[in-house]
Amino acid sequence: MLNCDVVVIGGGPAGLAAAISAKKNGAEVALIEREARLGGILKQCIHDGFGLVRFGEKLSGPEYAERFIDEFKKENITALLLTFVTRIVKKEKGFELTVVNTDGVNQIEAKAVVLATGCRERTAKQVSIHGTRPAGVFTAGTAQHYTNLLGQMPTKKCVILGSGDIGLIMARRLTLEGAKVVGVYEVMPTPSGLTRNIHQCLHDYDIPLYLSHTVTKVFGHDRLTAVEISKVDEKLRPIKGTEEIIECDSLILSVGLIPENEIAEELGVRIDSRTKGPVCDGQLMTSVDGVFSCGNALHVNDLVDYVSESGEEAGKNAAAYADRKRSYAEITLGDNISYLVPQRLELGADNSKTTVYFRSRKVLNGCSLSLKINGEEVFRKKYAFLRPPEMERLVLDFSKYELTESSKIEFSIEEGVK
Question: Is residue 209 within 8 Å of residue 198, measured between CB atoms?
Fold first, then answer.
């Protein structure tokens, strides 16, 4: 039986930051990671662009992770690698976890839990692509794993479905390794990835991007031989008569990420239908007292710097967690906001520097974010443009307002503001 103050589940950038932060704030910490090495998805992200916000320099994924791993080791934090959580139960005081690793089945008791479990990719079946089940259909992350970690080329000629960032980065990576990327096809009328990746990964390498197109069928018995591409209408339905058959040996999917929250659901944590992650307060505590969430398990971030930032906040607050009666003011969303985190504020907590993350529902030019409390506007910020793929971040002081459980806190985005 291992006893600690805080147990962190997940050893990626969020989990590492949370564990370090909790330890520096006086907690005894144990980190659980299911893989053999710390670092999470960063281990295979050999491109640069990480750390610009946090360190002011461009790092590769492994370089970014290494800085946290080095600090993690200096803090002498307990790390349980190749370890899986099979059961978690909330007790009268704290939590009991059952874990399995090479030592067998063991129990861990902790006062607080930080969920830093990251996210997973959507598969072909989750986007309803018809046809056979040939080899050669990969998620972008799997193709990245083959290429960057295993040194194996997954394709010679491929089609990429979805313009998410990993798909864009793999379009460039596979091109550099000698593969032919026929094109990137996106079902939406606007790209899903960051603008900088559209330019650096597609435009710079003359890789075409086809908007309002999708893959409707795959062909092949043992190995993929071709895909059927169709244009879609404004309701994202394939348009009959627009089908085109493209020969290729691989289909690479970059069609979205899903936060991994099976452990959260086992604990009865309330899940936000917009983010697919836990509902949390300004201290990143979920609806279950003592359970905190951060990183991509909370909501899908576009920069790892913000993943680490939320990990630090969750770790610090988990270390300071005390069981007490709490009350909350709920946050509601108005026009043009896809999602916003946090979804509520704890009354009486220190909300003077609350970090707010949000995304717009659609592409907007000349707009502003408005915050109203009980119908009165108390904050407004103008934006030249907002894009759904690009997450926005603000730090707001809610301590200035006399909030109660009945307070109506509403964020909305107004169009046409110059």
Answer: yes
